[in-house]
Input
Amino acid sequence: MDRFIIEGPTPLEGDLTVGGAKNAVLPLMAAALLARGESVISNVPDLQDVRFFMTILEGLGARCSFNDHVLIIDTTDQAGFDAPYDLVRKMRASVYVLGPLLAAQGRARVSLPGGCAWGPRPVNLHLEGLRALGAKLELNEGYIEGECLNGLAGGRYRFEPSSVGATANVLMAATLAVGESLLENCAVEPEVTQLGKALVKAGAKIEGIGTTTLRVQGVERIDPLEQSVIADRIEAGTFMAGVALAGGKVRLQGVNPEHLAPVTAVLQDMGVTVTISEAGGSISVESNGRPEAVEVVTRPYPGFPTDMQAQVMTVCALAAGTSFLTETIYPDRFTHVAELQRLGADIRLDGAKATIFGVEKLQGAQVMATDLRASAALVLAGVAAQGQTIVNRVYHIDRGYERIEERLGRLGARIRRKRG
Ligand code: UD1
Output
């Protein structure tokens, strides 16, 4: 298994282009199953998760080609409806194929995804929402088996709590249902909004995109998708946190500053200077001194994202003063705490609330994380820590960050990948 060897501390300086958003491209890939023909998705990041989702689509009979960040998904002869355990267990987002398969093929057999490194991750809202559209779903030997051979019907469903994945899944299904669907308390994360817009461009009839209430008039068919993926706000936020930690000045190109506002606000509270370019497509992040302590609570968008919690906790670890971080989306998402402690961080965990007593320096050590964002946080910590940090199991990072070591290296970090 590959590892990163990092010699710190080094400031980060220079320009960096942010890639397309992992969490936006995956539902778009699933949505390609709603149409017949070639969907073309551009600005697609070259990530393990994307390549993995391609194998799921290919297993369902679609043909995929991926070059220069352009992904073509040809569903002309796609007829499969079975997503097996061996594939789904590796990536929870595989469950995104459920709604489109039911809507377009009238049946689906999709493995239950199971939990993840930091605890259970239920799919009850996906199932209930699809049932509200008339799908007959049963759980059988670890599989979700569904049928609606006469198609789905419009229905009404309220997501409680707000769920990115369930909103996307049910929205995709409602697109081809017969009649009107009313979906309430929908997630308004930019990735869901992007999906809604791409579906409308392909002929779907959806009102309320970007709000928590979506009204969908089902259509018989939609055209293949044609969409460029929005910038990854979490990747951008990760590099911003890197500057807050290690110091320096970095200009991030290709971003949407509005999507970054919740992260920007917290980093500004910590004393980081964030400047948005006049045209709006880039932001500069600058930090010279020690960050200040802060209080952060994760919430659904437009709140502070849980996917930035580990990175910001790492900044808090070096802050002057005591910070408080409460996780309301995934109360167990704290696998990084023990690893940050190995680097010298002083963190006390009490249920879903972490108290972080800022220390002046982090000290390099061997660390390992069991999820994507936590691993990224440890890489940042390594860039800012004194001496050598070895981050093991970097395949987690490769799932969601394209060549992170090369890109951090161009900003001045001393980081190399050791294969094997
Ligand atoms: C997506 C993101 C993930 C991010 C998360 C929250 C993708 C591929 N992943 O995950 O990176 O951390 O949003 O922003 O886009 N819940 C239920 N029942 C369900 C579904 C969810 O109770 O059927 C709960 C979850 O346990 C959690 C909350 O709803 O507490 C939000 O989860 P959700 O938005 O669904 O996360 P994902 O879509 O899985």
In short: The chain has two domains: 3-19+231-418, 22-228.
